[in-house]
Design goal:
The complex is a heterodimer of chains A (128) and B (278). Chain A has 128 residues and is an all-alpha fold. Helices cover 68% and strands 0% of the residues of chain A. Chain A has one domain. The longest helix of chain A has 33 residues. In chain A, 36% of the residues are buried. In chain B, α3 runs antiparallel to α9. In chain B, β1 and β2 form a beta hairpin. Chain B has a two-stranded antiparallel ribbon with strand order 1-2. Chain B contains 11 helices and 2 strands, in the order ααααααββααααα.
């Protein structure tokens, strides 16, 4: 590991990306399943009703509020937090690729990847 | 219906959809939305939100395996993701301007096309000469492993592929599906990538594309955690299982049956949209 920089190749980046995606999906599924257990314990008599659309409450629509609710172990927010982790998994993959292309000194692809990351972040910005 | 029964049923159906979707290569997400709306009376916006989440999960789960085998081309994927993510934002914006009945009709048309693709056999194209100069400049030409050696390939018509990818991204953002079928066409027909490369690279791109519109869906309140939970875990479990027992032998009959089911759902969606039921 003396020459850390030269060690970055497409193959090694692919290994890390594969691992990143796997960990992200597993983590989110675990959080979602724990949230599901909370939910069924708290609301055993709830009934499914999705016939009419009336947007989700504010607590389930902003990242900060979802996180705050998840910390308080509120079941719906907890599941939603797991879904957020899933949503961030591809974003983390793209963010890592910026670093990997930079380490390979591939300027064109650093720019390409930054554009993709910018588009992804623009969809989240303003709704934190 | 009590929530426990409802969730259990949705989990099983999503699992079946994910399983068949993986076996036939169509993806599971595309049938979950029609099943939720037609069979369970779920509003199409909730159905789209829940399905989109499952699309991110299956794409990331499968890509985790593919990417390490060296089939997917990260450079092609990343470059085309500019088009698919921009398209996805546009599609998610369009979604809020279009009445749900129109969404159902468009969904039905995309399903009809998908069923046609499922039944029809695909031929991978493969070129080794006369690469698009743009592909050379973008270092897209590469190789993939096959029986212990590397097989070289070059990339054609990058601009055409890029434009098609914007359309695929728009459909993905509009309907909350991976639109893997459209992505594969852009890479098969326009860019002439080998079968293995286009399939795995398309799958690799689906998660990022879906993540672009998922943010907007979340903030618009389309993603209900209690509905998304069984859909996402079901489709993911089913598709991982399907990928594991991918046996080529009986695939043909299965493709035909699944294609017919999808065609039936397509017609029901179009009818539902036209009659104003959805």
């Amino acid at each position: 590991m003396a020459n850390h920089r030269a060690a970055w190749t497409d193959e090694r980046a692919e290994q890390v990306i594969g691992e990143l995606l796997r960990v992200g999906v597993i983590l989110s599924v675990v959080v979602i399943l724990i949230g599901a257990v909370f939910y069924f314990l708290h609301h055993p008599a709830a009934r499914a009703n999705y016939r009419t659309f009336h947007s989700e409450p504010d607590d389930l629509r902003s990242i900060a509020r979802i996180a705050a609710g998840a910390v308080k172990l509120r079941p719906r927010e907890f599941i939603q937090f797991g879904l957020l982790l899933l949503l961030f998994t591809p974003v983390a993959r793209v963010a890592f690729s910026v670093f990997a292309f930079a380490a390979e000194r591939d300027r064109t692809y650093v720019i390409v990847t930054l554009i993709v990351l910018g588009i992804l972040i623009s969809s989240i910005v303003g709704h934190i | 219906m009590p929530i426990t029964e409802f969730s259990g049923l949705i989990f099983l159906i999503s699992g079946l959809a994910g399983f068949l979707g993986a076996l036939t290569g169509l993806g599971g997400g595309v049938v979950v939305t029609p099943v939720l709306t037609l069979l369970f009376g779920v509003d199409i916006r909730y159905a789209i939100g829940a399905t989109l989440v499952s699309v991110i999960a299956t794409s990331s789960g499968a890509a985790a395996a593919y990417v390490r085998e060296g089939f997917s081309n990260i450079r092609i994927g990343m470059f085309l993701e500019i088009a698919t993510t921009a398209g996805a934002l546009f599609g998610a914006w369009l979604n809020s301007r279009v009445p749900t009945s129109a969404l159902a009709i468009i969904f039905g048309l995309v399903l009809l096309y998908s069923s046609y693709l499922t039944v029809r056999a695909r031929h991978g194209t493969h070129t080794t000469q006369n690469a698009d100069p743009l592909a050379v400049r973008l270092r897209m030409n590469s190789s993939y492993p096959s029986a212990g050696r590397r097989i070289e390939y070059v990339v054609q018509r990058v601009k055409a592929g890029f434009s098609l990818m914007f359309a695929a991204g728009t459909i993905s953002g509009l309907l909350g599906i991976g639109s893997g079928a459209l992505k594969v066409i852009a890479m098969d027909r326009a860019m002439h990538l080998p079968f293995k490369v286009s399939t795995t690279t398309s799958n690799f791109m689906i998660g990022v594309t879906a993540a672009a519109s998922a943010g907007l869906y979340l903030f618009r309140g389309y993603i209900d955690p209690v509905l998304a939970m069984p859909v996402m875990t079901g489709v993911l479990a089913g598709s991982l299982l399907g990928a594991r027992i991918l046996v080529e032998a009986k695939i043909k009959a299965l493709r035909l049956i699944f294609g017919l089911v999808v065609a039936f759902l397509a017609i029901e969606m179009i009818y539902g949209g036209m009659s104003g039921r959805i």
